[in-house]
User: Fold Transferase from Streptomyces viridochromogenes.
Amino acid sequence: MGRLPDDDVVPGPTWGDDPTLDLAAATGRAAGITARIEVPGPTDRRPTDWERNAAGLAAARWITADMAYRRAALAAVGGFDERFRRGFREDADLALRMVDAGWTLTGGRRTTTRPVRQADRWISVRLQAGNADDVLMTRLHGRHWWRRAEAHRGRLPAHLAMTGAAVTALGCALLGRHRTAGACAAAWLAGTTEFALARILPGPHTRDEMFTMSVTSVLVPPAATWHWLRGRLAHHRARPYTPLAPFEPVPAPGPAVRQRLLS
Assistant:
């Protein structure tokens, strides 16, 4: 079994023995065993938008921040898809391919801490690059892959609508259709305001955080739209995933072996 911890996690004091204990409790159908991820947040204030985003990793279903996979299972499905260059999508893609091949994934008993990385105010704009990966996920696993991966759908439909309203408002204004331009501009303003408030209200309400949320709430929708369109162009020839090899269960450790592993 190979272990795939991220380089920014802090494993527990029994890091070396934990996967062995998890393996002893697993069945032969288990392809991977994930750790319980803890993301410490601030204790003296409400978390920022970025800190809330990072905290969501603790609830991610198949996060590979500290995942141990059977080598046989990785070989059976072809390993990681190198077209995914960002986190989460590569995790979900691999997990879905494992499930499609007949394997199961389970949670282990070990605990790993993943501190919140430092980030500048534009991190939410840069993260929209993941929308291109979402297009590839849809090509490979179908439009309902979010549900199968137990993942948060995100606000892409709203971002597309807001960007469309802004572009239409500008186009109508240039054509002299001021009434239509005004209506579209009002729709864009309402959507942007709702988006900004949804990010500001749960936060610490500091001046810097409110400024960051106000500015990036204008920039995130067009950035998301751009990367979504880029993904549709880049991955338009991608074909649905089919298992590379039939599932062959790995014999689970017998009672005597389990006892040695746990001792």
Summary: Residues 256-263 have pLDDT under 50 and may be disordered. The chain has two domains: 1-119, 124-242.
